[in-house]
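Limitations
The structure tokens in this dataset are predictions for the assembled complex, not deposited experimental models. Users should treat interface geometry with appropriate caution, especially where small molecules or nucleic acid strands are included. An illustrative entry is reproduced here so readers can see what is and is not provided.
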Amino acid sequence: MRKREKSAALFEEAKKYFPGGVNSPVRAFKSVSGPPLFIKKGKGARMEDEDGNVYIDFCCSWGPLILGHDNERVRAFVLETVANGTSFGTPTALGNKLGKMILDNHSYIEKIRFVSSGTEAVMSAIRLARGVTGKSKVIKFEGCYHGHVDSLLVKAGSGLATFGESTSAGIPESFAKETIVIPLNDREALKAAFEKHADQTACVIIEPIPANNGLLLQDKSFLECLRLHCSKHNVLLIFDEVISGFRVGFEGAAGHYGIQPDIMTFGKIIGGGMPVGAYGANAEIMSHIAPDGPVYQAGTLSANPVAMAAGYAALEQLLIPGFYDRLSALTRRFADVIESYAKQQGWTLRVPSIGSIFWLCFSEDRITKADEIDSASMEKFKVLHHELLQRGVYLGPSGYEVGFISAAHTEQDLAEALQAMQESLHVVFDE
Ligand SMILES: *Cc1c(COP(=O)(O)O)cnc(C)c1O
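Predicted assembly:
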């Protein structure tokens, strides 16, 4: 047994300081067993906890670390930058440098505004959409996560009600009422929602590659249908690419599907492991943002130079030709090996993947909607998670979370992880 004594003690201590002992709820290991791992350091695809256990990491800080831990060029540029101070509250040349690099290589946006998290990016994008259209309602999809924005912590109401119900205490009903929730990949529901609410709706927000509640890959035709409806009814289409941006290609899901959204949001990878978010659109839409326009949005630490340096050094490496092809091929092979092994054993397990994202799905069928996920199967994930930790493989601590492969994962890392995966799955299915 790998010991988790130091992590356990640190977790007990952390409970004195933080609600639930954590600063973000999923970290608490509520749906898997044991105390959360307190990580001390990472290098490449591996990270080490306070007890000295080393794990091959498939969580990658929930997505940002597409280059793995402690990337040399990111570290070097951060150190060089931080030597000049940490924050000035003024524009910096480094902000320009990252902004230019993104816009030069991203054909779906013309201007961008940096913020400090994905949540902040989404919150600002919604305000922008409301400011531009003068309308207030938002259509979102069940199973898409857009950060902890009040009006988006909402799921479908029960029965026939299409207005949302908040999924958190502290959200006024009147806010939740501004949000309409419909199922993913369902053209009829989309059509009905537009017929009823389009004249009051500012925007539709979607994760074009939904990856926060399993990996619910959508039909391209559904996304195209969404684009058409939005254009026809003066409703802005927001692609929340906080997770898919720079992940399935430099131009994210927009580039992958060839669909032009009206506003895009970014986070995670864009900061190279530092807290950065951003939203972007064409120049006309972005001209509504203060100080050019009347939509107010600001941030004391926005475009923080150290974070800009990390983002620049990371994104620069993603632009190297072949970067995404190699990573996608590696991921597809990894997913295919697990899936075909499971099939050979007669286990109910599918491993959908796209770009460098994969998901372990305990189901026979392709799943495109949140309510098709079998919640009972999460017991299987719990066992799997535990067995994998014992064998030195770290997955995000919930069966609803996707896994990520980074450019730092070597063939050796993946071969070891596959061995651990097969052994662990035998425990899940055979015992
Ligand atoms: C992670 C995520 C967010 C929230 O970003 P934070 O930086 O955690 O605030 C929003 N939308 C999507 C699609 C995400 O994956």
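Some entries come with short summary sentences. For this one: The chain has two domains: 5-70+321-430, 73-318.
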